[in-house]
Amino acid sequence: MSAPTIDPLDPIDGDVEATSPPRGRHRLRTFSLIVGTPMLVVALAFGAFSLFRPHIYSGTVMQAPTAAPSMDGLEWTDGTPVDLDALQGDVVVLYFGYTGCPDVCPTTLAQVGKALDRLGDDARRVHVVMVSVDPARDTPELLGEYMSSYGPEFAGATGPIDAVERVASTYGIFFARGDDYGNGDYAVDHTATLMGIDTSGHLRIVWPATLDVDRLASDLRALL
Amino acid sequence: MRRTARVAASLVLVVGACGGDDDDVVVLADGMAVVDAWARPTPTGARDAAVYVTVENRNAPADRLIGASSARCMVMAPHLTVIDDDIASMSQADAEADLLALLPGGRVEMNPNDLHFMCLGLTTPLVLGDRFDIVLQFHAHDPVTVPVEVADR
Ligand SMILES: [Cu+2]
């Protein structure tokens, strides 16, 4: 934010200057020095404050961030084990969802994609990871294709159901088989928050499912 | 009432009167208006999708949306997503529910993370810029075919 420029020595536009008698003009100058100088100081201070003001996050920031729990037992869709430590230095946006999810997951992932677009080249330092809460149906192949259709920053992780359950519970994520559609297909109810892991590998922030793209983008920029 | 609605509905008056791609509006002669219909492009491998429709009753007789169908979906059903305490769940929106009621002056508005038509069993993926037809079924009005825009909103 740029501070408004105030020149205390030339405060008033031509009209006033031209019609003011010398004495009035002198008063005006004194007046503008008295009022203008503090205004300038306030404006500069405000400008400096805006520059150095800490980012106010839109998500819920952890009071005491701890290292992101291990994802032992889960694999990336290419079959390699998920090791979050290997991603240190970058920001991880973690989500739990499934490819059969028609409304909430595609809405959230599309919003995250738009937030990454706003980050430009910095988006390369963000990894969006969806852990499948439907490992029985989300094969690595399916999950991999699904996630990569959102862009190169998006990756899927899955594993045996007990490993998924253990990881979900350490992250405070609930999931359970939900509504039966009547055609053999079914929904999986799940916690739909996004979690942010910072560049030092700490679980730092939680965003609600209904998040604003601009706010997410500015939070991510601050985490980077 | 039901009879008059049917007669009115058979006189489909205006289709796509408003120009631009996004604002195709299908208005029946009696004032029932489908003002919006869109879906997100589907990620690779998605088997189901959500379609979001907004219907306004501009002083037509009271009616109710009861369902939809499309050649792009094996089955379509009205669904409601609820996010409660951060947990997202989805259930069939009962056809009798107030959610789908179209009283004169009222509207049914579908949105992401809320009310939607579930498209179960996509026959082909939905691609950005695509358009496809769905048929909306009403309790009293005849079925109405509307174009759905595949858009990244
Ligand atoms: Cu649904």
* Average pLDDT figure of chain B: 86
What is the terminal separation of chain A in angstroms?
21 Å
CATH superfamily heading of chain B: PCu(A)C copper chaperone
pLDDT averaged over residues of chain A = 85
Number of helices of chain B: 1
How many strands, which pairing sense, and closed or not: the largest β-sheet of chain A?
7 strands, mixed
Rg of chain B (C-alpha, Å): 15 Å
Residue share in β-strands of chain B: over 45%
Give the fraction of residues assigned to helices of chain B. under 10%
Low-confidence segments of chain B, ≥5 residues, pLDDT <50? 1-22
CATH architecture of the largest domain in chain A: 3-Layer(aba) Sandwich
Q: Looking at the structure, what is the overall shape of chain A? A: elongated
Report Rg of chain A: 27 Å
Bound molecules: copper (II) ion
Task: Give the overall silhouette of chain B.
Answer: globular
Number of helices of chain A: 6
Order of helices and strands of chain B: HEEEEEEEEEEEE
Largest sheet of chain B: 12 strands, mixed
Describe this structure in words.
- The complex is a heterodimer of chains A (224) and B (153).
- Chain A is of the alpha+beta class and 224 residues long.
- Helices cover 37% and strands 23% of the residues of chain A.
- Chain A contains 6 helices and 9 strands, in the order H-H-E-E-E-H-E-H-E-H-E-E-E-E-H.
- In chain A, the strands form 2 sheets. Chain A has a 7-stranded mixed beta sheet, covered by helices on one side. Chain A has a two-stranded antiparallel sheet with strand order 6-7.
- Chain A is elongated, with a radius of gyration of 27 Å.
- Chain B has a single domain, classed as Immunoglobulin-like (Sandwich), CATH 2.60.40.
- In chain B, strand 2 and strand 3 (32-39) form a beta hairpin.
- Chain B is globular.
- Chain A binds chain B through residues 99-100, 102-104, 106-107, 109-110, 142-143, 145-150, 174, 178-179, 181-183, 185, 187, 189-193, 208-210, and chain B through 40, 42-50, 74-75, 77, 79, 81, 83, 86-92, 112-113, 116, 118-121, 152.
- Strand 7 of chain A pairs antiparallel with strand 7 (87-92) of chain B.
- Residues 50, 79, 90, 116, 118 of chain B line the site of copper (II) ion.
